[in-house]
Amino acid sequence: MIEVLNLQKVFRSSVVETWALNDVSFQVADGEFVAIMGPSGCGKSTLLNILGLLDNPTGGSYKLQGMEMSGLDENSRTNIRKGLIGFVFQSFNLIDELNVRENIELPLLYMGMSAAERHRRVGEVMDRMNISHREKHFPGQLSGGQQQRVAIARAVIAEPRLILADEPTGNLDSVNGQDVMNLLSELNQHGTTVVMVTHNRHDASYANRIINLFDGSIVEELPL
Ligand code: ADP
Ligand code: MG
């Protein structure tokens, strides 16, 4: 499903140049559950954003289902993303003006689903994520953990083939974190490909495979 070859990402400003990714190559097969681990600042979010078509690499190749993604303009990336990918942002990215139900419903609106079916599906996923009692609340009225649960509900509601999650349990207590990991695991068992960034060894144990990143490169093992 994912083939990455010599991927590079350099952030340039007038004063500094940051090599966030340095010749990163790996593949993820359909139906795999892969965890990306590594210390803060090593390029995990940069890599996931590129995989999620939220950003372009500065070099190398990224193929998604056999199609080259690097160099695509933002419109094409957005269209492919909406059809294929559910993204859980490290910083939630909820829309402040929409309540919980409306935030979760957004991907279904893009698909043109009927109002009755949307209502049913959003109700189901809100129950699954323990957030039904807050359906009329706005993001600013929720705790960090509740916002994370809404963000995850929005990422999974359209049943995407690929879920990319950036530290999805980072803001949750252990019970809610466990719920999220069980949900990702269940989706994966039903065929969804999952790539998850995490700091947490316990969360990584849900994955079939771990990719260790250090200073923008893949390493066999993380230095202590
Ligand atoms: P991680 O998610 O592993 O903590 P990031 O991918 O967020 O790390 O960042 C990797 C490196 O790239 C860091 O050194 C960070 O400062 C830099 N970086 C990330 N985003 C930008 C940006 N938009 N502009 C400049 N540098 C950035
Ligand atoms: Mg990060």
Strand and helix map with partners:
Blueprint: E1 2-12, E2 17-28, E3 33-37, H1 44-51, E4 59-64, E5 67-68, H2 74-84, E6 85-88, H3 100-111, H4 115-128, H5 144-156, E7 162-166, H6 174-189, E8 193-197, H7 201-204, E9 209-214, E10 217-219
Parallel strand pairs: 3-8, 3-9, 6-7, 7-8
Antiparallel strand pairs: 1-2, 1-4, 4-5, 9-10
Bound molecules: adenosine-5'-diphosphate (ADP) and magnesium ion (MG).
Residues 44-45, 90, 166 line the site of magnesium ion.
Strand content: 25-35%
Biggest sheet statistics? 6 strands, mixed
Order of helices and strands: EEEHEEHEHHHEHEHEE
**Ions and ligands:** adenosine-5'-diphosphate, magnesium ion
**Shape, principal axes of CA atoms:** globular
Strand sequence of the main sheet, in spatial order? 6-7-8-3-9-10
Could you tell me the mean pLDDT? 94
Proportion in helices: 25-40%
User: How many strands appear in the DSSP assignment?
Assistant: 10
Computed structural class: alpha/beta
Instruction: State the separation between the terminal residues, measured CA to CA.
Output: 32 Å
Number of helical segments with 4 or more residues: 7
